[in-house]
Amino acid sequence: MATSSHLLPQALHMIPRIPNLSSKSLGVSWFLPRASSVNSRISVSRVSLNHPGAIESRKRRVIIAKAEESNEGETEADLEDVAETVEDTGVEEAKTPWKPRTKLGDVMGILNKKAIEVSESVRPVPEIRTGDIVEIKLEVPENRRRLSIYKGIVMSRQNAGIHTTIRIRRIIAGIGVEIVFPIYSPNIKEIKVVSHRKVRRARLYYLRDKLPRLSTFK
Amino acid sequence: MASKLGMMSLFEPDGTVVPVTVVGFHEGNTVTQVKTSATDGYDAVQVGYRRVREKKLTKPETCHLQKSGIIPLRHLQEFRLTNVEGFEPNQMLVFDEIFKEGDFVDVAGTTIGKGFQGGIKRHNFKRGQMTHGSKSHRALGSIGAGTTPGRVYKGKKMPGRMGGTRTKIRKLRIVRVDKELNVVLINGALLGKPGNLLRITPAKIVGVNIPKN
């Protein structure tokens, strides 16, 4: 295989396995992954070009020549397949560059990151930490005339991807009020950090038992 | 057939939050066998999912797949259809062609196993009083009448193993189909933990899909 020279030396030992029983039209060569994690199944399927699913299965092929993939310790098992895959990879890699298949374990992180990027492009979110005194302008869909303003100290920040929330505390009309805002929500029109108070905690739940004076903000 | 990956929230443009489950696909979803009334007595399509190493399958399983020249697949499930034309072995099924955004689906899978559980958790029984001299808090209470019938009915709800069974959740909406990541977002919560195998079918709605009577 043309790309085998790029593999690490440890990857090149022979492993005896069941001879390939499949027909010429669909041959499969197997890689035994080093790290036996669920998502690092690496395989190459050779598919004839008339096959209806050719496009799908070709997309699933992993580029073995890539440096980062070789760290997972792929092993090329059989020399028979070496000769046959030479023409295959040569021909197909010249045509289209393969995108490496996204691992299923990374999908959640990617989706959250994408959603946050979309939200940030519409309205950038400043860095908010516990102890900041912020002012939030919220649009309520029912009465679209005016934006409601909420001011207070950030008591906690719960990181959950796109649903990252902050909890704002303030004394309104003599009563302590805590409100939770998802900071990437499209309803929030503006978040502004007014000032900052030095705190030595990540969650300021102690403010509930303290004097109301400490949670009052003009 | 698909795998559950996790959950997240989506914000609609008007600000409502939609809880969605992210469902991903391993390599698979290939037709392995087509059953017709002529050969098997009913019409169905057998679909395989999740590619594995050859040595993980037994020889009968491997040869069943190699008969049609298919990669080794771990799970095989049948989907009964009224009309099986247009399906051939070793045909890849693409999710986008079958389901669109806004469709309703039924999702079946194995629930989370809870072990041996008592009546309250398993069958939503109500517990007895905790104080006021009561001696029965979480017990079953009475399990039958007196001399007639003089026995306990079969199927009486009692403590036992809970969870780990196959269940179907009906009429879930598909919120988004993402082609680059090969992922589907379905409204609501699905069965099992991330990594669980799911079976997704179009929702059976009487009047729309299923003929009345």
TrEMBL record, chain A:
Gene3D superfamilies referenced in this protein's UniProt entry, alphabetically: 2.30.30.790
Alphabetized Pfam families for the sequence: Ribosomal_L19 (PF01245)
Domain of life (superkingdom): Eukaryota
Keywords: Ribonucleoprotein, Ribosomal protein, RNA-binding, rRNA-binding
GO MF, one annotated term: rRNA binding
GO cellular component: ribonucleoprotein complex; ribosome
UniProt-listed InterPro entries: Ribosomal_bL19, Ribosomal_bL19_sf, Translation_prot_SH3-like_sf
NCBIfam families to which the protein is assigned, alphabetical: rplS_bact
PANTHER family associated with the record: LARGE RIBOSOMAL SUBUNIT PROTEIN BL19CY-RELATED, RIBOSOMAL PROTEIN L19
Assembly: Part of the 50S ribosomal subunit.
Function: Located at the 30S-50S ribosomal subunit interface and binds directly to 23S ribosomal RNA.
UniProt similarity note: Belongs to the bacterial ribosomal protein bL19 family.
Annotated protein name in UniProt: Ribosomal protein L19
Species assigned in the record: Eruca vesicaria subsp. sativa (Garden rocket)
Automatic annotation (TrEMBL), chain B:
GO molecular function: rRNA binding
Keywords: Ribonucleoprotein, Ribosomal protein, RNA-binding, rRNA-binding
One Pfam family per UniProt: Ribosomal_L3
Similarity annotation: Belongs to the universal ribosomal protein uL3 family.
Domain of life: Eukaryota
Stretches for region Disordered: 131-164
Gene3D superfamilies noted in UniProt: 3.30.160.810, Translation factors
InterPro entries associated with the record: Ribosomal_uL3 (IPR000597), Ribosomal_uL3_bac/org-type (IPR019927), Ribosomal_uL3_CS (IPR019926), Transl_B-barrel_sf (IPR009000)
Name used for this protein in its record: Large ribosomal subunit protein uL3c
GO cellular component: ribonucleoprotein complex; ribosome
